[in-house]
Amino acid sequence: MKNRILLALMLLVLAYPKFTYATQNNTKPRIIITADPELDDNNSLIRFLLYSSEFKVEGLVYTSSQFHWKGDGKGTKFMVPGREYTKYGLNLCPCESYRWRQDERFIHEAVEAYEKSYANLKVHDAGYPTPAYLKSKIKYGNIEFEGDYSKDTEGSNLIKAVLLDTIAGPVYVTAWGGQSTIARALKSIEDEYKNKNNWIAIKKKVTQKLVLLPSGEQDNTYATYIKPNWPGIDYRQYKNGPNYGYGAQLVANAENAPLLTTEWMQQNISSKGAFGNIYRVWGDGKQMVKNDPFDYFGIDGYSNEELKKMGYIVWMPKQQKGSWLGEGDTGTFMNILSNGLNADEKDSPGGWGGRPFVPDPTTYIDPFSNDTTKVKALVISEAYLKKMAAAEASNIAFPNFFPAAQNEFAARMDWSVNSNYKNANHAPIVNIKGAKAINAKPGDIIKLNAFVKEPDGDAYTIKWWQFLKNKSNATINITNNSSLQTTIEIPKDAVQKQILYIVLEISDKGKNSLTSYQTVKIFIK
Fold first, then answer.
1. pTM tops 0.90, yes or no
2. Which pLDDT belongs to residue 358?
């Protein structure tokens, strides 16, 4: 995610597979990744490939955005007023291409690193797809210009084919860059069927099937085409979750900060084989596009002021060499993981990707908005500040999932270089006996029993807790939160039709402690 604006605002399994919905039902979520060649897209893609055993990967698609576009190769010059290439004293466009390497193939390179790691990964989880399969899913989408969905591409055709196939949904489609390739797939479907008798049925099918997982609106095609013409599409955004973005260490709490340091990154990520070699960290000596004025991350040995004199736009201060750089797109898919939080469900209180939210159109400003006048007006508006303060006051604390997510990332990186199952750590297998959805009345007492299988024989901790969705949730009394058998009491003031969530969290005591969950959903009658 290109969260420079967000950052600026902040600064003012296994051989024994996890017991999950996916493994119980022999299903995996279908997902298509669309990405542009930003540094954090590269890093998010590495983490995603390490989780590819959890998904049916239907596509890995290059796309453009306001930050990266290839051009048509015909000398055509292009620009959108107000974009970053006209700010900060720059006057880079109209231009034929913007921040796009001539031989750009970062998705191919990530899959090639996966291929070198595949034999080891398969030892730890037989569900990893073959490198040949993943290579077959790499396509170039609408990459010529920002927001251009005027013609079909192999990437848009892939998305179109998946949306029209006979397999039931959902199909999760991420937008780590712009949404022009997704828009083209939808426009092509509309153009093909809108004058046919089955258009209503086709549109309903696609609308119900597609789940969009955006990293913001990076080319305005959602606002100008997708939303007006396909208003029923499930468009999921998340907040309050782990900060995977650029400069996460600048605002990290005491628990998270150690997981972003040079020492931790070197020990757990950068040193881990083919993936570690291409994972971007501060001061690594690399640039995705030579002389890119916004990509000074790999340059070491210069101060912020010296970098500015060299022509770089230093939009966030340099960090320690080898430390965390960013994975701003990772949150788009982390709620789809089958880790037992069931965060893929629309009514879920959230997961490793954050809490689902529907933005208030009267106050929400997309971080990639071009309307700087509106942004400034909202910032200085007393009414806006009061409204935002009230909204913040109504929020409830969100669990800190970052350590668990980061530890599992480290474990999977370890799998990629470790050919011996016994020499690596694997997440506990957790199950709660009986139904995972319970009807209850105020005052009811419910017994919950669980069992755990620890693949590596590690000791583990047990914790039951209530996952609060909002302040109106009744607080459940948990009599013993550190035993596999516990009793919960539904408060007598619980409101009918409310849904409450109880989570069992099991964390092993192996290397890079791994955490699994099971969730019980309680419907108040």
1. yes
2. 83
**Residue 133: which H helix or E strand, with range?**
helix 131-136
The alpha carbons of the chain give a radius of gyration, in whole angstroms, of 23
What pLDDT, on the 0 to 100 scale, is given for residue 11?
A: 39
CA distances from 153 to 144, 191, 242 (A): 11, 15, 34
Alpha-carbon span 352 to 350, nearest angstrom: 7
What DSSP line would sit under 380-441, residue for residue?
Answer: H-HHHHHHHHHHHHH--PPP--HHHHHHHHHHHHHHTT---GGGS--PPEEEESS-SEEEE-
Contact 213, 173 (CB under 8 A): yes
DSSP 460: E
User: Which residues make Cβ contacts (< 8 Å) with residue 493, sequence separation at least 6?
Assistant: 442, 474
CA-wise closest residue to 316 among 1, 69, 12: 12
| CATH architecture type of domain 4-334 | Alpha-Beta Complex (3.90)
Domain 427-524 matching CATH 2.60.40.10: the answer reads yes
Query: Which residues belong to CATH 2.60.40.10 in the chain?
Result: 427-524
In this prediction, residue 390 carries a pLDDT of 56
Nearest-angstrom CA–CA distance, 142 and 182? 9
